[in-house]
## 1
Amino acid sequence: MVSRDPEEGHRAATPLELLFDLCFVAAVGQAAVQLHHGLSEGHFAPTSIGYMMVFFAIWWAWMNFTWFASAYDTDDVPYRLLTLLQMGGVLVLAAGVPATFHDYDFLVVTIGYVVMRVAMIAQWLRAAAEHPEGRSCALRYAGGIAVVQVGWLLRLLLPHPYGEVGFLLLVVAELAVPAFAERHAPTAWHPHHIAERYGLFTIIVLGEVVLAVTAAMQEDVADGGWSAGLLEIGVGGLLMIFAMWWIYFKHSHVQRLRENLRGSLTWGYSHIFVFASVAAVGAGLEVAIDADAHKAHISEVSAALTVAVPLVVYLLLTGLLHSRFADAGGRSALISAVGSVLLLGTALLAHTLGVSSAVLLLGVLMALLLTVGLVTQREPVSEAG
């Protein structure tokens, strides 16, 4: 196992990486299902906190493999078998997601997470053994990850609320490992490959949103047939999904990814909110469908906000990323800020418009914000990667 050339031409995601992503989206889907049910019941704070805790485990394991693979993907038998072990770990994690929301039981989720991280330790140890030039960095990764995994297992013994405190401390420790390992001898990851991997995962999560909303609409149709409200939510949701896709890929961040370690980590870490907000929009649309059918135990304004709030998070973050990493300047951030105010204001009108009409307007507003961004951008639309 030797480091790949960071300037390698035509570097693209492999079929194994795409299969890996699909396994992770299964876990994302489970987290979104539980988010939908909790929000429909009005359990906003505990459900949102649980969602972000589970999502961190999913995203962090995915992100670590993605950056490792960009530098050391040998695609031989040992590499594939360790990747298979990671895929098994995420499926175990996905199986434990309902228990974390219903019983606050993190045992199965933690076991699945640690399995994935142990496989990652093995990958780093192999890199240390076979790539002398990168040995110090690989050993720092392996040692740092191993220490934190012991912490995750010990956290299972902590009672409430110390378990939450332990979770936050371990999140900080996990985030610190790459900064510690990469500071003096960075890995040779490929910027075009990384940008493509993040873009592909964004698309796959958007696809999971389409699947979840379609299933919710089919269930509603089976119960009571088509309605004007259901059609409004369907059209509004489609406009949102398309606008979110276009907004993300409106600029390429590749050229500025390698400027410095802090910038690379900022770009990579901030995507937890991009991915989590995309999946949360899908959960919010399902809540809106429930509210329109009078199945949700929340107000119409609250139901509309379950869609608008993750849209705002997504819009603000992508605007900041475009401003920082794509030379879009303050224009992109300003459009996002103004758009966020309009999105929240539209959701608050749901008590007079109805939740379905509010969702339709949210979709139209996202399309208009995209149009404004396209009209005011000076550079041509570019593909990620």
## 2
Amino acid sequence: MPTIQVEGREAIRAEEGQKLVLALEDNGVDILHRCGGNARCTTCRVEVLEGDAGPVGEAEAAILTTKGIHEPNVRLSCQIRVHNDLTVKPVMTVSDSGMDPGKRPVD
């Protein structure tokens, strides 16, 4: 079971293959996901500080480019399937933005 270290919090565990956004939300991280995990809004962005988050898929690459996000370590947590230990920093949270988190992403 992979371990996710979230900057400023205790480490959490994720099921093998689970979407990172769901692992974060299910463990009390107030991550945004306004489009429901469909790689359209970029609100679930995380900065991957350590570990291998896997390859960037076509949909994720397209929306990051469209939104002008070019940092190689910034990823959409709704598009990451957890297979390895990671250290991440959420870019946008419910508490920082004051927005509703959005519809729960499907697995």
## 3
Amino acid sequence: MTDTSNTTIFELADQFIALANQLSQQEGDVGKVGTALRFAAARFNAFEAAIKSADLGAEKDNALDWFSAEYREMLNDNLDDHIANPPVMQEEAVDDSVQIFKG
């Protein structure tokens, strides 16, 4: 597979985020949309692994480790960004169903 597009991963991600924002507003449930987005990412990444692997059964653990590490690094970077630059929410857009994350 050769990448012939000049579109960056950040531009593609922005398109997914725009759709997620639209769906969050439509559904009124950020958590539901976040869960759906994680499921979609997992499903698409499993497909990606399957088409890139000669023997996915044998390489499954390596794929899990690689995708998990990639996601963890990306999530960590974005959490740091939101800590440094908290999102400004409009009063009516505040999601009162936000959960407190406990370790």
## 4
Amino acid sequence: MMKNTPTLSLRVPEPSGRPGDAPDFSHLQFDPAGAVTRPEVSTAPYDMRDHAFRLVRVLDDEGQAVGPWDPKLDPETMRRGLKAMILTRAFDERMHRAHRQGKTSFYMKCTGEEAIAVAQGMILSREDMGFPTYRQQGLLIARGYPLASMMNQIYSNAEDPIKGRQLPIMYSAKDYGFFTISGNLGTQVPQAVGWAMASAYKGDDKIAISWIGDGATAEGDFHNALTFASVYRAPVILNVVNNQWAISSFMGIAGGLDTTFAAKAIGYGLPALRVDGNDFLAVWAATQWAEERARTNQGATVIELFTYRGAPHSTSDDPSRYRPGDEAEKWPLGDPIERLKQHLIVLGEWSDEQQVEAEKDAVEQVRAAGKESEAIGTLGQSRPSVKTMFEEVYATEDWRLIEQRREVGV
């Protein structure tokens, strides 16, 4: 050992609070709403590096939309967005209860993150392809995908559109711009980049968008995808949903303490935006900016959506074992539904009474879909035909499949 040098030690990042502690967000520094500049879409990534460390915000504490990122949406569009978020939350609540009632084996809620998928699902066309994780159910709901069909897939019943081939919440709906969810973390990012490259190679006009959690940015797939996106200027939007927590480890384990996740784009020569993910208008504006860049052959954009996972990671998780019990309630960027609601009220385009009615209507929509789906069957009560195991894999069955089907009797 060299003289006069300290003994080496290994740093293991720790979150700011554990069970029993008071929530502490004093380490977070946010720009005031409206303070971050909006660069021209043609701005070189090098010249907008600071946007990887700032936080794009539109809605202030009084519910006003301020600053250059205000997308100036008409009230009807915002009402549609609010209702879609309310419906998404109502759907989550019912399906979480369904798991507790033994009607399905697994479920994952997106509580607190509804603005992300809903806003982005409303902006992009169904013909563009989304490569989601398991918390973008709002993408389907915002686009009007039948709730009963989502439930059929969750229950793996006889009308399951995926025919029992996926975990309960791993939807697939090509006609709604929703690529099949993969259970392997990170794989959707290179898939999205590859799809976008193919679209450009064919001279098409469709773009791709993907979502990845903060923890999955530590996967090699994420970095491989950024290389291809940069080199080939793929028309793709790459979202990092930083919701602070994986199933039991916090975002610092993936490198979120020393820098931002948006900053990972800088080393690849990609533009980066860091956005308040609980601000529907900020998400909308940032996505609109990245969409224009992609559609005008200026390449990919990385967007870090700064939010908070308010619910358990999944029905297999108990967050009270690793974080303060009331941490979600104290999240300084608030609740996305409440914030958009307040903005519409400030504009005179909504009211508390309308909010109550919208919530009741959402519950009724979900209840009606639940009755329709459960009449077909919940987990184990009905299931897709066994013969579907042998279908839609090969264009022409070879002798092995024919023999296997004969043995099964289908």
